[in-house]
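Journal club prep, shared notes

We agreed each person brings one worked example of a sequence with its structure written out as tokens. Mine is Heavy metal response regulator transcription factor. I'm keeping it raw so we can talk through how to read the token line rather than staring at a rendered picture. Sequence first:
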Amino acid sequence: MRILVVEDEVKAADYLRKGLGESGYMVEVAHTGIDGQFLAQESDFDLIILDVMLPGIDGWQLLQIIRRKSQVPVLFLTARDAVEDRVKGLELGADDYLVKPFSYAELLARVRTLLRRGAPREVEHFKVADLQLDVLRRRVVRGAERIVLTNKEFALLQFLMERSGEALSRTQIASQVWQMNFDSDTNVVDVAIRRLRVKVDDPFSIKLIHTVRGVGYTLAVPE
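Then the structure, token by token:
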């Protein structure tokens, strides 16, 4: 199982990486809130261990960002021991809250408990404006019209809708949909987006798939 540790204290992060690694987990570490956000959005983790006081964006903000897209278990590990801090963390969506200094045995027990709860059920239905995607039924509808997509077109649209409103690079899209490293000489993403637009956008007055100059693409309701 994969664990992301977001901790700005290098010694503490190394301690967690070593201990959890020896306990059989794959561990990645981020030392800033921004790096933690990037890793949390780019990779799938089974658990995130999160400090509150982080450079860039703090742990409260990062948890809110994570919860917009994911229900991955989050354990706050922080020196902030006030009752109001614990309450705030849990109300924002944390699954557990452990105060520093801590016993590694207790941390490991809490980690195992959170992981035993199992992965949360994935989102099965996405909706942006009048565009709806049903993951289980493999069905796409816009307005009252059914849209028939190939498997890759469906995967591409699902990724765009999962990250609705985000500017997604061609590298991100290629990695997620085609499991390939993006080659700047390859226009597979642009071709696929063009084909998807023909089905999802062209017959409708409101366009949802937009080009982000210098970055890639986004699916969003126009402002």
